Amino acid sequence: KGTEETYKTVFSNTENKNIKNLKRGADYNFLDENGLIKPETIIQRGAMLCALIDAIEYAGHRAEVICNWAVSSQSEIYYRLGNMKEKGWFEVDVKIKKADQPLTMIELAFCLAHPSMLRQMMFSVAEIEGWSDSVDAYGYPATATNKGDLYVQEIFSEEVSDEKAIDWVFKEIEKLGIDLKKK
User: Fold this and answer.
1) β-pair type (150-152, 6-12)
2) Looking at CB atoms within 10 Å, which of 19, 40, 50, 74 has the fewest?
């Protein structure tokens, strides 16, 4: 389909509560979790993100989904925003869905909604690379370097009503200029 747009989605682990809508046509960035969030919240947030990706693809667009884990060795927000990375920075991007790949909800749900995903995947990489030996508690959540079209650092810190979750998905779709009512 020559006219379809591709969105690249990256999920980041930062605990900041702002969502950035970046230019369309290249990337989406999303979320991960920190140790203070309940498993039920992670599951709900992941379901919201899965619904968003499903809606983007339903509307005839393609989504590339990347899970990002960025951490700083410094706790101050200045460093966690990516300033002075030479002071201690570790970042991993894992592509969990290519733009031309069909949407497989079970794989997407594991990466975005399973409470153990961060520990099973990202912490293992940090241990193999030696990062976990040089910082306390795997470091401090930081902002992803490559943000893409839609960057979600954190949606909610706790569970929300279904109505609020659905509203969030529709607002994000609207930010991208996608009209589901026409489909």
Assistant:
1) parallel
2) 40
Task: Say how far apart CA 158 and CA 75 lie, in whole Å.
Answer: 22
- What's the pLDDT tens digit per position in 4-38? 455 555 544 433 323 233 222 333 334 444 456 67
Pull the structure tokens for residue 96: 């969990």
- State which amino acid sits at residue 101: Q
Amino acid letter, 26: A
**Token match 């902002």: residue?**
143
Q: Are 15 and 70 in contact (CB under 8 A)?
A: no
Name beta bridge partners: 95.
66
For 27-73, what is each residue's pLDDT tens digit?
Answer: 333 444 445 667 888 888 889 899 999 999 998 888 888 888 888 88
Q: How far apart, in whole angstroms, are the C-alpha atoms of residue 11 and residue 8?
A: 10
Residue 176 confidence class, pLDDT cut points 50, 70, 90:
confident
Q: Where are the beta strands (DSSP E) in 119-176?
A: 140-141, 150-152
Q: Within the chain, what is the greatest distance between any pair of CA atoms?
A: 53
Instruction: Enter the tokens of residue 72.
Output: 């700083």
Residues for the chain: how many in total? 183
User: Which pLDDT score, from 0 to 100, does residue 52 have?
Assistant: 92
* d(C-alpha 138, C-alpha 47), whole Å: 26
Cα–Cα distance measured from residue 70 to residue 134, given in angstroms and rounded to the nearest whole number: 15
